[in-house]
Q: What sequence folds into this?
């Protein structure tokens, strides 16, 4: 996840995946139990009914994001900027995301990963808390062309458990394109 700041009020907000927070309430610091904020809004996930294929024909109103916003307590010391690019000034719409765009993310487990977009605007079934959910208009991340074979040979998966909520960042002029 990451943090955003309302520069008019000074209020800081965290943005991450809904399944990371699991339910509305308080947010703790990486499982330490130390309160850092309270959930203010979260998206709704679309469970996939048993025996139904998840696609645009059977699930036309499927979720397109797994997200939650929480207001950070004033005592929380989290910077409202990306560690390598500084302040995130805007986000990009799905219409501006193409195949083979150079991007990166910093996952809690994987650290900084330089990669590229693969398929864009796809439908996919993803297991969240043991339940299959259908998502629409998502994009795939893959190792950048030329680097993938070496990483795969070394047994490195691009994304690791614990990376959920990482923001995907394109070149600084593009801003944050997804989470």
A:
């Amino acid at each position: 996840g990451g943090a955003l700041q309302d520069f008019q009020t000074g209020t800081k907000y965290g943005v991450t995946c809904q399944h990371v927070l699991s339910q509305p309430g308080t947010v703790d610091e990486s499982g330490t139990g130390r309160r850092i904020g309270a959930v203010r809004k979260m998206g709704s996930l679309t469970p996939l009914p048993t025996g139904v294929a998840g696609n645009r024909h059977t699930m036309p109103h499927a979720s397109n994001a797994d997200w939650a916003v929480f207001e950070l307590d004033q005592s929380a010391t989290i910077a409202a900027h990306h560690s390598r690019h500084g302040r995130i000034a805007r986000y990009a719409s799905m219409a501006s995301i193409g195949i083979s765009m150079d991007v990166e993310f910093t996952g809690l487990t994987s650290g900084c990963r330089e990669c590229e977009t693969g398929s864009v605007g796809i439908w996919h079934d993803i297991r969240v808390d043991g339940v299959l959910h259908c998502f629409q208009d998502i994009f795939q991340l893959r190792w950048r062309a030329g680097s993938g074979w070496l990483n795969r040979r070394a047994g490195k998966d691009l994304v690791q458990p614990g990376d959920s909520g990482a923001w995907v960042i394109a070149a600084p002029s593009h801003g944050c394109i997804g989470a």
User: Anything to note?
Assistant: The chain has a mean pLDDT of 78. Strands lie at 2-5, 12-16, 26-28, 35-42, 68-72, 102-107, 111-128, 131-143, 168-169, 176-178.
